């Protein structure tokens, strides 16, 4: 039996959980090898990412025997030079171990410390990401939760009626109305039915929003557009009149700031609406749009295959003509007019729609613009996969090198939490937490948008307890609700899921209404109006307690994740302090349908938050979670979860 553990340290810190470092760091790699015979030598074999390159430079670095360890100190800048990755980027490595019995073994894998054997083809090598040493992460973004609002469905004051546009239909049934839907998924939908939510309504609910522990509000698109969802931008320089216009956004930013809350906008810069100032296919604007004349000042923004009716669209959707984000005049418009106007109006940061479809040059220019206007602003990209090694449109993306994004939407964590809480999938949880965080820079992990649901996904309550949606038509899904028994189970699971998510590195994001117990299947059924007169008060109280806890406990913002115990029944993990803290937080979660015993050390740690069990009763009921604050002098390994 051979086992190999890898530890890393730099600047006096134990960096075992990480595989991404700054260009300016010196990292010590240390192997602990247990083998049935002597180890003759150990070599690190490392190479630069070969994607998009004619050749990939491979280097070998022997490790030196020191006591019972094999060690290697690497300067990240020199390493990048050695492997022809001068600006940093993605590298891969494995270890070659020579034993005295003449065996040659290869080890790698993505576990934080325990390495696994590889074949000679080296499938499953370890990633190493080297990012810009000058990068500085945003400080304020991680303070509190993120609250995601789909504006037309959150709260209304009547502004939509005064700003109502041509062809718009107002559905007056806020409490029971069903969003407009197509006959089948992907069918064309006008999206011209509105429920009347507006930005003044959001402002009126700021105290409610603040009670959830909110630090930042993330708004679905607010710029003028024909649809209710506003992803078909008509005019980037105008807030939609049905949302209250420019003054409504300025008022929201001002009132939110009084409560210590920031406002983040949805930046839709990959496509515009066909019905827009810039394309003007419907002739509703006075401008000469790209659809109307090849001589239009906007014509070069779009790609026509046959003018004017055959043009490149986002995923073939004709109302969403795709913009060439590499075009310099488009970039100048966004950088010099759009971003400055709204950030000067009080906007804090940006979530970038379909970031995979924006060019690297556009993202880098956008970052420079945003950071010039606010050095602490956050830019979060919509990326559905692992962002550390993402390939899209034949290009290896470089989102996390400190030049483009501060973080991404954490779909892998969402999938992992659902798989674990509903189905008990232990490996999925490990893959979506410690394995993923190992590949990300620490700052990127801390700026992940961690969510359980969005406007693009099935509602989390339904995901945790509802029936499989593929067996139903849209007409059936529009009215399908959980049985009382299913809903009871789903509510228990949702508490488990949110307690788990909120304790992970990253910023917890709540999609409006999840905290109130909203159900709903795929888009658009996940976008119903907020149930202001029918909220689940018990669930709401739970969300508030977790949100306040997350806002108050700084170790949950910057602490290092360490999984201590993961079984189908429950999970036990710690957030260890990174700096300046003398306490860690240990989190225990029971996902089983039976009570679990929580073993604690003799010096009982402090139980924190309204959601936890009374002191001295260390039994977790089904679905229950507990957060414990304890001094770092108490080993986290002295905690344990066992079935009764």
Describe the overall structure.
It contains 15 helices and 38 strands. An 8-stranded parallel beta sheet has the order 28-25-24-19-16-13-30-29. Helix 13 (484-502) packs parallel to helix 14. The longest helix is centred in the C-terminal third of the chain and has 19 residues, at 484-502. The model has no long low-confidence stretch (mean pLDDT 95).
Give a brief rundown of this model.
The protein is an alpha+beta fold and 644 residues long.
Strand line-up across the major sheet: 28-25-24-19-16-13-30-29
How would you state the average pLDDT, rounded?
95
Instruction: Report on the biggest sheet.
Output: 8 strands, parallel
- What is the architecture of the domain at 3-131 at the second tier of CATH? Sandwich
CATH T-level fold name of the domain at 3-131: Immunoglobulin-like
Question: What characteristic shape results from the CA principal axes?
Answer: globular
Helical stretch tally: 15
What Rg do the Cα atoms give? 26 Å
Query: What structural category characterises the helix and strand content?
Result: alpha+beta
Termini distance?
A: 33 Å
- Classified by CATH, the class of the domain at 3-131 is Mainly Beta
Q: How many individual β-strands?
A: 38
Task: Tell me the fraction of residues in β-strands, as a range.
Answer: 25-35%
Instruction: Report the helical percentage.
Output: 10-25%
């Amino acid at each position: 039996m051979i086992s190999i553990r890898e530890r890393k340290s730099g600047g006096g810190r134990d960096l075992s959980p990480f595989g991404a470092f700054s260009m300016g760091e010196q990292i010590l790699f240390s192997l602990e090898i247990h083998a049935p015979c002597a180890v003759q030598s150990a070599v690190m074999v490392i190479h630069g990412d070969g994607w998009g390159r004619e050749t990939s430079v491979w280097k070998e670095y022997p490790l030196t025997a020191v006591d019972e360890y094999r060690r290697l100190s690497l300067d990240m800048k020199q390493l990048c030079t050695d492997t022809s990755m001068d600006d940093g980027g993605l590298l891969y490595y494995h270890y070659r171990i020579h034993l005295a019995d003449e065996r040659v073994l290869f080890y790698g894998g993505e576990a934080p410390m325990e390495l696994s054997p590889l074949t000679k083809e080296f499938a499953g090598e370890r990633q190493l990401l080297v990012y810009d040493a000058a990068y500085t992460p945003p400080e304020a973004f991680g303070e509190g939760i993120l609250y995601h609002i789909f504006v037309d469905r959150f709260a209304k004051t009547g502004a939509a009626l005064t700003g109502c546009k041509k062809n718009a239909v107002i559905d007056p049934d806020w409490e029971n109305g069903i969003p407009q839907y197509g006959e089948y998924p992907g069918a064309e939908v006008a999206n011209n039915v509105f429920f009347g939510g507006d930005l003044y309504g959001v402002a009126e609910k700021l105290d409610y929003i603040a009670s959830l522990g909110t630090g930042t509000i993330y708004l679905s698109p607010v710029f003028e557009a024909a649809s209710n969802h506003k992803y078909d931008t008509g005019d980037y320089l105008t807030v939609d009149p049905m949302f209250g216009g420019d003054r409504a956004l300025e008022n929201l930013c001002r009132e939110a700031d009084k409560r210590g809350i920031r406002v983040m906008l949805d930046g839709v810069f990959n496509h515009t609406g066909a019905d827009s100032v810039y394309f003007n296919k419907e002739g509703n604007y006075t401008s000469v749009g790209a659809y109307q004349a090849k001589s239009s000042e906007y014509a070069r923004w779009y790609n026509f295959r046959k003018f004017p009716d055959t043009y490149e669209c986002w995923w073939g959707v004709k109302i969403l003509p795709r913009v060439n984000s590499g075009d310099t005049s488009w970039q100048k418009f966004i950088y010099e007019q759009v971003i400055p106007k709204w950030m000067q109006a009080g906007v804090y940061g940006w979530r970038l729609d379909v970031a995979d479809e924006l060019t690297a040059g556009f993202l880098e220019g956008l970052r420079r613009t945003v950071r010039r206007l606010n050095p602490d602003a956050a830019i979060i990209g919509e990326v559905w996969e692992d962002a550390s090694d993402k390939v899209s449109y034949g290009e290896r993306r470089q989102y996390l090198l400190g030049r483009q994004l501060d973080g991404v939407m954490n779909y892998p964590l969402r999938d992992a939490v659902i798989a674990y809480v509903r189905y008990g999938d232990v490996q999925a949880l490990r893959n979506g937490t410690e394995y993923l965080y190992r590949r990300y820079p620490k700052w990127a992990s801390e700026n992940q948008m961690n969510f359980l649901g969005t406007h693009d996904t099935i509602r989390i309550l339904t995901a945790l307890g509802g029936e499989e949606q593929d067996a139903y038509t849209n007409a059936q899904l529009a009215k399908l609700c959980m049985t009382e028994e299913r809903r009871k189970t789903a509510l228990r699971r949702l508490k488990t899921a949110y307690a788990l998510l909120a304790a992970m590195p990253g910023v917890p994001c709540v999609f409006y209404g999840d905290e109130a117990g909203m159900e709903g299947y795929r888009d658009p059924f996940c976008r119903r109006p907020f149930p202001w007169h029918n909220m689940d008060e018990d669930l709401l109280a739970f969300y508030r307690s977790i949100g306040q806890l997350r806002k108050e406990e700084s170790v949950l913002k910057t602490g290092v994740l360490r999984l201590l115990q993961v079984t189908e029944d429950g999970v036990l993990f710690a957030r260890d302090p990174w700096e300046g803290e003398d306490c860690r937080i240990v989190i225990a979660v029971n996902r089983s349908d039976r009570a679990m015993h929580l073993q604690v050390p003799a010096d009982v740690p402090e139980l924190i938050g309204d959601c936890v069990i009374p002191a001295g009763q260390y039994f977790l009921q089904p679905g229950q979670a507990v957060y414990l604050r304890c001094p770092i002098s108490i080993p986290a390994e002295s905690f344990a979860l066992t079935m009764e």
